[in-house]
Amino acid sequence: MAVYTEVGDEELASFIASYDLGDLLSFKGIAEGVENTNYIVHTSKGPFILTLYERRVEAADLPFYLGLMEHLAEHGVTCPTPVRDAHGKNLSRISGRPAALVTFLEGFWVRRPTAAHCAAVGRALAELHLGGEGFGLRRSNALGLAGWRPLYERFADRAGEIAPDLARLIEEELAFLQENWPQGLPDGVIHADLFPDNVFFIGDRLSGLIDFYFACNDALAYDIAVSLNAWCFEKDMSFNITKGQAFLRGYEDVRPLSAREREAMPLLARGAAMRFLLTRAYDWLNTPKDALVSPKNPMEYVRRLRFHQGVRSIAEYGLNGMAK
Amino acid sequence: MAVYTEVGDEELASFIASYDLGDLLSFKGIAEGVENTNYIVHTSKGPFILTLYERRVEAADLPFYLGLMEHLAEHGVTCPTPVRDAHGKNLSRISGRPAALVTFLEGFWVRRPTAAHCAAVGRALAELHLGGEGFGLRRSNALGLAGWRPLYERFADRAGEIAPDLARLIEEELAFLQENWPQGLPDGVIHADLFPDNVFFIGDRLSGLIDFYFACNDALAYDIAVSLNAWCFEKDMSFNITKGQAFLRGYEDVRPLSAREREAMPLLARGAAMRFLLTRAYDWLNTPKDALVSPKNPMEYVRRLRFHQGVRSIAEYGLNGMAK
After folding, report:
1. What is the DSSP string of B148-166?
2. Is CATH 3.40.718.10 correct for A115-317?
């Protein structure tokens, strides 16, 4: 939520001159993005977003992220599209940082999503899964099953600072997930972080998806499980089955789930809750008190996880009827 | 440099609906403005800036600032122009704060101004002084002569933390200024803070002036003195007479100075240096270490002040020849 790297007027003007975008008209740092520095840049060709990648982003992954956004945009998914410079490159440097210029996407995220929003997000996620087919680069999911235990071990000795029984809960759940994690589900490119702040709407119309910086290759149904966690719980941590139904039906309108994907959903949802529980717990224990961004409460994911532990079938998330 | 107040999507959509600006398309908090929260807002009618006035701005002064921007825009000064809502009001409220929507001004501030930039700023300042004629509201200069001693007294006992001889310098200079301050100069609306970050350019063309939140009624020539301090010193604190000449000639192309204004310039420049020395010294001593905005070094104004103390006539700022 901050401008970590200041860009000067002369260096930005010469940066913009390396693109076919006309003259630089204005630029303003925006208070968005936890990891990176972002500017709104106006040129005579329109508005763009300039992103400077800060240290927390692996530079080696940038061709994957930028290539994916370009691939998705070419395949009907509305998202910020990287602009190529005069040398045909979509990745450049400014102010000592890797940087990319992408098209400006109108829309804004919805603080109180309704079932109608969830239905639109379900459709968009399925379109993303289909649109990602044929993308040539791969990136493994660093925050998938294999990454959870090492991440937990980085704060295991301090888990009790969050809640007395948290260590036992995580250890038992990790053991269960490692024993039972579904294998061989249809895989492909997943967003892996499709939370409400990464989906833009204009009124009730979904205008596009943003923030592909967790995207990777993994089971497509795991992405659905992330979204069920992200979109379908109320502030009191109760699961809203109307939203779950809307989301899953929206998804299946575009890409029907197989019987195995349906069966796996409660387990995948447990795994997705574990993934956000672990990163939130780590951030909770490791964010300096005076940081610009306050860490989010990990216990919200303990409550989601407990809900999923009691779920026996995808019907409890709102999807009835036979798999197609 | 921060978003102090978060605005939600639903409240902003209903706020925008009270204007004749079409639909809300997007909004992003921007990292600009030390005192206020600013958002870039796109509607179907174009881009706008939404400003939420935080506690440091006197709400009673807002009609002056907004009325002035409107008056200036009507009189040929390019600046952000307040938009009136369906009830004809240019001041509203959102998220518990007074708020105004103004037009988006293209351009960006120049980090390394040249003499050509200074000439353009001189012209623009004179145009602002002429454009302000006939504006019906008044606001006295809270940071003018009468305000300096009370401000100094708020940190006098700690001035030695900045430099051992600072208290003596300020006390002697304040006594001198109070004794000798020029009276009866032509007055009117002044910007009072026309620093490089408040003047936008596109290339070499000045595209407009921003940030009228120190504007007030005072001697017009005092505003010139502020600008000589703000625009014509190099990083090593040497005065660049080429820039001074360009600025003053640019100003006089639009509004020639009277003989009395010319004579008063060295004194006014001392006063302007004192004003920024005092506010910077106060901020230096009173900004928490973990604040988002780092305080600027007050000693830069001690060095400017010492320069002005040695100036005997406006010729040393670059203006030769007879007054018109």
Report:
1. HHHHHHTTGGGGGGT-TTH
2. no
On whether any CB of chain B is under 8 Å from the CB of A3, the answer is yes
Tell me if chain B has a CB within 8 Å of the CB of A2.
yes
Q: Is the CB of A30 less than 8 angstroms away from the CB of B30?
A: yes
What's the pLDDT tens digit per position in B175-225? 999 999 999 999 999 999 999 999 999 988 999 999 999 999 999 999 999
* Residue pair B159/B170 in contact by the 8 Å Cβ criterion: yes
pLDDT value at residue B324 = 58
- Calpha distance B320→B324 (Å, rounded): 12
CATH number of this structure's domain B9-103, picked from the four choices 3.40.50.360, 3.30.200.20, 3.20.20.10, 3.30.450.40: 3.30.200.20
- The residues near B143 (Cβ < 8 Å, ≥ 6 apart) are B151, B192, B214, B275, B279
Portion of chain A with pLDDT greater than 90, in percent: 89
Nearest Cα residue to B271 out of B192, B191, B216, B166: B192
CB contact under 8 A, B108 and A24: yes
Write out residues 285-314 of B within 8 Å (CB-CB) of A: 290, 292
Interface touch A23/B203, C-beta < 8 Å = yes
- A88-111 pLDDT tens trace: 999 999 999 999 999 999 999 999
Tell me what pLDDT residue A324 has. 57
All residues of chain A having their beta carbon less than 8 Å from the beta carbon of residue B37 are: none
pLDDT at A151: 97
- What is the C-alpha separation between B169 and B148, in angstroms, rounded? 14
The confidence band for B238, taking pLDDT boundaries of 50, 70 and 90, is very high
Size of interface A-B (CB pairs under 8 A): 77
The two beta strands, A97-103 and A46-52, are antiparallel
Q: Are B200 and B210 contacting, i.e. CB atoms less than 8 angstroms apart?
A: yes
Distance from CA of A40 to the nearest CA of B (A): 9
How do the domains of chain A map onto residue ranges?
9-103, 115-317
